[in-house]
């Protein structure tokens, strides 16, 4: 049938579809609007976070300024108190005689102003031993300290072949060792003179070395106390300096003409050690470092760096900048070879990094920018990146090829040591604030901060990456070495904060400050050098010390293993560097059952 109204009937399905599309469109517009609102909110929140971060940074800066001013005021007040003949303050060692002489100025400190990192370690005259480094034993005055010598006016009995121990320290035991009092706290930098917290007693013109561990000092005492009972062999733990070498069987010691090594009687002996070369210098040897092919060893001392042939022990190169003013001392605190052996980088007290062309004995680059002494350098294995650490509270990265500075990493306290990871992705630094920090070398983000309850209790003076790049060792004025397991993965986003690595091992056994640490190229041993004049080999798996080597007459400031293995070098305040050989030895069955443990 024909419907005359057909053209007026609406198309119902099409109308419904249009309504649905309009509804969807409206909902879409609504969601777009909400997304825009969320985007605005996120942007506002990010802006607020940036403001908070900036405010936090400003507060940290204000806090640093206030701390600086406070410590300067404390230093000034202490100086005034000493000048007026006031009471002995806490930096003096308990048991020392009261100060009755002229007032002493506060010891020098690392930081902005008088800079002297080693001043808190080995107080000495710069003219002989370098700033903060003890002069060699033969330069010391013969007068004994009142604490350990005869009373004033009485002659000394017998010959005096050795010097007295550190002022204010107790007299040595029968085996020649003595336990110094612990440092009070870490030294810190400042814009003016500040008290160094942690030196061994009051500042003195010169420092005597530890006495020979194999001989008792020939110093008369009116009423000598009875000798303390000697512990059974093997009951000293890792403090091998407490062993009496005369009581040890031949299998647990090794003696040279002017050195000796003792082996831990509680564990199997698996190493032997021998002296290869003695490299004499005219001043304190601040640092030692092998070339990557193991053929040469470099040393840093007053005004020059020297390179020796490892096989012959002969001097092959003497690097000295003749354009520098000849007056005063200029100690080279750190040296490192480029991976290809063509260059040697040196860091010195004049705040400059010199990169020497070894063959031509010319300076390829001079990097400037640090505001205080440079204490540590490291070359990346890519041969292009150099890291430096300074008392000016910064770590700086330099591009050797381009010849300019890449990055400045600032912290709250003086930087004492730096190391670049084997893959050149990370740079680590130890500081006077007791912390170890690890940065991403590309972005500059702080990815690890190693401190806290399981961290060091005093300034960190040395850090070194393990060959696997995952572990790190650090040595401190708290007399310990710590091994850290870095947290993987170490990448991070800005603002998330550094991760905290885990301390997997603490090595205890040195009797004084640990000044240098390193790992052998196979990662099998941790080496350490100390103010107690000893070098120790540690098993990183167990924390046990394998041996203790005594071969220097003053603090062992630097230890360095050869990248080729089986050799290591030491540098000391006795004006000598030494090259040593270590080898694995068969372990007899009797070594597994020491007599003291049967």
What do you see in this structure?
The chain has 598 residues and is α+β, with helices and mostly antiparallel strands. Among the domains are: 18-83; 232-281 and 509-598, YVTN repeat-like/Quinoprotein amine dehydrogenase (Methylamine Dehydrogenase, Chain H, 7 Propeller), CATH 2.130.10. Helix content is 13%, strand content 29%. It has helices at residues 12-83, 126-129, and strands at residues 253-255, 260-263, 271-280, 287-290, 296-300, 305-309, 315-319, 332-337, 343-348, 353-357, 362-367, 374-379, 385-390, 394-399, 404-410, 415-420, 426-431, 436-440, 446-450, 460-465, 471-476, 480-485, 502-508, 514-519, 526-530, 534-538, 545-550, 556-561, 567-572, 576-584. The longest helix is centred in the N-terminal third of the chain and has 72 residues, at 12-83. Mean pLDDT is 78; it is low at 86-115, 122-211, 213-221 and 589-598.
Q: In summary, what is this structure?
A:
This protein has 598 residues and is of the alpha+beta class. Helices cover 13% and strands 29% of the residues.
- Order the strands across the largest sheet as they lie in space: 1-2-27-26-25-24
Work out the strand percent. 25-35%
Any idea what the CATH superfamily of one domain is called? YVTN repeat-like/Quinoprotein amine dehydrogenase
Return the CATH class of one domain.
Mainly Beta
**How many beta-strand elements?**
30
Helix content: 10-25%
**Radius of gyration, Cα only, in angstroms?**
31 Å
> What overall geometry do the principal axes of the alpha carbons give?
elongated
Supply the number of helical segments: 2
Helix/strand/pairing category: alpha+beta
Instruction: Profile the largest sheet.
Output: 6 strands, antiparallel
Query: How far apart are the first and last residues' alpha carbons, in Å?
Result: 121 Å
- What is the arithmetic mean of pLDDT? 78
CATH topology of one domain: Methylamine Dehydrogenase, Chain H
**CATH level-two architecture of one domain:** 7 Propeller
Low-confidence sequence ranges? 86-115, 122-211, 213-221, 589-598
């Amino acid at each position: 049938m024909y419907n005359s109204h057909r053209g007026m009937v609406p198309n119902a399905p099409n109308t419904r579809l249009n309504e649905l599309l309009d509804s969807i469109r409206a909902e879409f517009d609504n969601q777009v609007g909400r997304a825009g609102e969320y985007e605005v909110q996120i942007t506002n929140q990010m802006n607020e976070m940036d403001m908070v971060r900036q405010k936090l940074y400003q507060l940290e800066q204000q806090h640093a300024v206030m701390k600086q001013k406070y410590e300067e005021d404390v230093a000034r007040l202490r100086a005034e108190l000493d000048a007026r003949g006031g009471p002995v303050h806490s930096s003096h060692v308990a048991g020392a005689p009261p100060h009755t002489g002229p007032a002493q100025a506060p010891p020098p400190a690392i930081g902005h102003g008088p800079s002297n990192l080693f001043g808190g370690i080995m107080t000495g005259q710069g003219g002989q031993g370098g700033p903060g480094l003890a002069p060699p034993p033969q330069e010391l005055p013969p007068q004994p300290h009142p604490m350990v010598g005869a009373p004033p006016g009485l002659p000394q009995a017998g010959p005096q072949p050795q010097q007295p121990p550190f002022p204010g320290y107790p007299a040595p035991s029968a085996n020649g060792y003595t336990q110094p009092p612990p440092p009070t706290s870490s030294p810190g930098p400042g814009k003016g003179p500040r008290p160094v917290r942690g030196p061994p007693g009051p500042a003195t013109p010169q420092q005597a070395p530890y006495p020979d561990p194999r001989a008792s000092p020939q110093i008369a005492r009116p009423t000598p106390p009875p000798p303390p009972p000697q512990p059974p062999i093997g009951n000293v733990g890792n403090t091998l300096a407490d062993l009496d070498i005369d009581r040890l069987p031949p299998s647990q010691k090794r003696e040279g003409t002017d050195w000796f090594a003792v082996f831990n009687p509680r564990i199997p002996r698996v190493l032997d050690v021998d002296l290869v070369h003695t490299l004499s210098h005219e001043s304190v040897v601040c640092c030692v470092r092998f070339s990557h092919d193991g053929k040469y060893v470099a040393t840093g001392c007053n005004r020059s760096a020297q390179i020796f042939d490892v096989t012959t022990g002969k001097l092959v190169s003497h690097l000295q900048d003749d354009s520098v003013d000849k007056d005063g001392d200029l100690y080279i605190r750190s040296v490192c070879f480029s991976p290809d052996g063509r260059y040697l980088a040196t860091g010195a007290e004049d705040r400059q990094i010199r990169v020497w062309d070894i063959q031509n004995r010319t300076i390829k680059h001079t990097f400037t920018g640090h505001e205080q002494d440079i204490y540590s350098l490291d070359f990346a294995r890519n041969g292009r990146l150099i890291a430096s650490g300074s008392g000016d509270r910064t770590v700086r990265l330099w591009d050797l090829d381009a010849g300019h500075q890449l990055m400045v990493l600032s912290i709250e306290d003086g930087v004492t040591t730096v190391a670049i990871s084997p893959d050149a992705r990370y740079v680590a630094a130890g500081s006077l604030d007791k912390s170890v920090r690890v940065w991403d070398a590309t972005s500059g983000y702080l990815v690890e901060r190693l401190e806290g309850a399981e961290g060091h209790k005093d300034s960190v003076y040395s850090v070194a990456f393990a060959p696997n790049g995952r572990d790190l060792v650090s040595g401190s004025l708290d007399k310990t070495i710590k091994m850290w397991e870095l947290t993987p993965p170490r990448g991070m986003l800005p603002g998330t904060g550094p991760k905290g690595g885990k301390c997997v091992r603490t090595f205890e056994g040195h009797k004084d400050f640990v000044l240098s640490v390193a790992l052998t190229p196979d990662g099998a041993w941790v080496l350490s050098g100390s103010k107690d004049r000893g070098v120790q080999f540690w098993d990183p798996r167990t924390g046990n010390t394998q041996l203790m080597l005594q071969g220097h007459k003053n603090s062992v400031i630097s230890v360095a293993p050869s990248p080729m293995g089986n050799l290591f070098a030491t540098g000391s305040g006795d004006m000598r560097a030494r090259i040593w050989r270590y080898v694995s030895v068969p372990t007899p069955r009797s070594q597994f059952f020491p007599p003291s443990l049967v």
